[in-house]
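TL;DR need structure tokens for one chain.
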Amino acid sequence: MNNQLAAEGVSDNSHSAQLADGKFHNSAEVERPSFKKTLAIFKRFITEKKIDAEPKGELPMHSVSHAQLERLSNDTVHFVKLGHSSILAKVYGEYWLFDPVFSERASPFSFMGPKRFQPTPISIAELPSIAKVFISHNHYDHLDKAAIKQLVDKTASFYVPLGVENDLKKWGVDEQ
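>> reply
TL;DR here they are.
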């Protein structure tokens, strides 16, 4: 690990093809919108009426228990959708969790931001031991700090993209 980065608590990502001159760079050029276009998007976001932004009625949801998960066969792969981005997989008897988000809101704040339409079909406390947790990226609807902190003691391994490992370390996940 680069000593300066290590001293600052930043992992050494020098092996990344996107790292140049100490900064990350997109491999493809991305055209940034003009200030005028950005302002127009923001105005539209604030003023435009949201049509069908919430379901008109209750969405069908089936709760699942630890016992039900255990009864699923170990000789194949099963998937349980937990909401938005979160999926629990039973892979030949081993439990894998993808993008675990269990909080009521996908936001850094508990009082604002996109809110769940319904609770998750199973709580973190009721989940079986998890072999692997996979995080796709660090947006609030895919990476839930509170969930990670609760999953630390029941998860064998976490798999994350470049740059996310430091967040997990701060939240109590051991370096693996």
